[in-house]
Amino acid sequence: MTATVHAIVDLDVTGHRINRHIYGHFAEHLGRCIYDGFWVGEDSEILNVRGIRSDIVEALRALNIPNLRWPGGCFADTYHWRDGIGPRDERPRIANTNWGDVVENNHFGTHEFMDLCEMLGADAYVNGNVASGTVQEMAEWVEYLTRGDDSPMARLRRENGRDEPWDVPFWGIGNEPWGCGGNMTAEYYANEARRYGHFSRGHGENKVTRIAAGASDDDLNWTRALMSSAADCAGCMTGGDLPYEAITFHYYTHSGEGINTEDATRFTDEQHYGTIAHAADIDRVIRGHVAVMDSYDPNDRMSLICDEWGTWWNVEEGTNPGFLFQQNTVRDALVAGIHFDIFHKHARRISMANIAQTVNVLQAMVLTDGESLVLTPTYHVFEMNKGHQDALQLATHLRETPTRTVGKKELELVSMSASAKGDTALISLTNVSVDEECTATVDLRGREARVARARVLTGDGADAYNDAETPDRVAPRALDAVVRDGVLTATLPPHAFATVELELA
Ligand code: AHR
């Protein structure tokens, strides 16, 4: 059976810029993300530069990754940055009580993280400790990283081998304060965010976007507390200094039963569609947060960041339950495609998003095992979609699409978004049906277009995945797509993500 999809894209009607930081990443001291992931150490047999694994850097550079968040997550609120500077063999060991209760040797600290960002060409998003740290500790970390003169912290940095200050454009004020980040109430945290934010300004030329830790899912009361607190100062929302420039929310996808309740690679059709419906529901969640923000901040001075998103399945058999290691299938890739369509749509307010997490944890880009490194289906979505980074939204209208009832809602089985950059445009299409291909016809209005490249990502089933034995089972292939008389036509297989790159006249 072939379903039909009809859409219209106005190639000459551009909207907001899709901030490249929507394609951001997240590296936490959790399981094998840092240790035995990014960091193998200088003495490792695995090819590395100053201890950082080279094949991971190479793979991620191909994604143009715009920023990397670190050191957590929950870990951030137990992390004391001074433990991770100075000679490595003298650094204290600590217990990572959040993740597996393992002992951490602090070999990967501030200098190693900034080195990694420089290798990746990514901006640093450093997440400070509110729950078990102090204002002074956080202020000194900002000074250590970003100050150029001979202040005490700049001097300490030099003693540890780095002369020039680094640029740190993004600064997180705690993480999940309603949970692992201190069990606080929204009002209490909103005050703390103002206080910590006040002392977390950058030094010299370094301008820091201070990011207050926000809601879980659709907890609009949390967003209201942060926005009302931010608005409660003279002229904040009309040009004065803000206490923080952005607020976050976290959104993890599952099939409806909750995180950590089913397997990454073994699922029923019902669980597949439940997952897709839950992924698509982030649109409702964002609309809620944006409505609250609009009511306090009609001039869009503050932005919304989803700094943790992705699927959360059971850990793979035989792995440490505290390490959150999961496989990654075509279903995960479809979740990513849908999330990006929705983030693109909300580009006015959403300035950043960070998938959790880049290496060996949850919905990862790469999975490593000893020497082997596997690119996941999700990795390929990031690569195929990278042309949307800093492009302008294009007006896109889905006129006809197959649907399926999931719970009490009608789920559209095809999702789409488009953007333009100069004389090029990029259209992304996701067909979530497990068994039906679909022929898409897209009226391209306003400018003449020709197909420069079209690719599709799919596998034998929605549960197909890559592993060391078959690393390219799910990889992008050429897709037949043509533009005739201003109409783009392409047939997507079932459970597929596709991109069409256009040249515009
Ligand atoms: O990404 C794993 C964990 O999920 C993060 O540490 C935490 O912020 C969230 O609960």
Layout: helices, strands, pairs:
Blueprint: E1 2-17, E2 25-26, E3 48-49, E4 52-53, H1 54-61, E5 67-70, E6 94-96, E7 102-104, H2 110-120, E8 123-128, H3 135-146, H4 152-159, E9 170-173, H5 186-198, E10 209-216, H6 220-231, E11 246-253, H7 269-280, H8 282-296, E12 303-311, H9 330-345, E13 350-355, E14 366-369, E15 372-375, H10 377-384, E16 392-400, E17 403-406, E18 409-412, E19 414-421, E20 424-431, E21 437-445, E22 449-457, E23 477-478, E24 481-484, E25 487-492, E26 496-504
The structure holds alpha-L-arabinofuranose (AHR).
Give a verbal description of the structure.
The protein is of the alpha/beta class. It has 2 domains: 122 residues, Immunoglobulin-like; 364 residues, TIM Barrel, CATH 3.20.20. It is built from 10 helices and 26 strands. A 10-stranded mixed sheet has the order 23-22-26-20-19-16-1-21-25-24, covered by helices on one side. Strands 2-5-8-9-10-11-12-13 form an 8-stranded parallel sheet. Strand 14 and strand 15 form a beta hairpin. Helix 5 crosses helix 6 and helix 6 packs parallel to helix 8. The radius of gyration is 22 Å and the shape is globular. The two termini are 36 Å apart. 50% of the residues are buried. The model has no long low-confidence stretch (mean pLDDT 96). The site of alpha-L-arabinofuranose has 10 residues, from loops. Alpha-L-arabinofuranose binds next to loops.
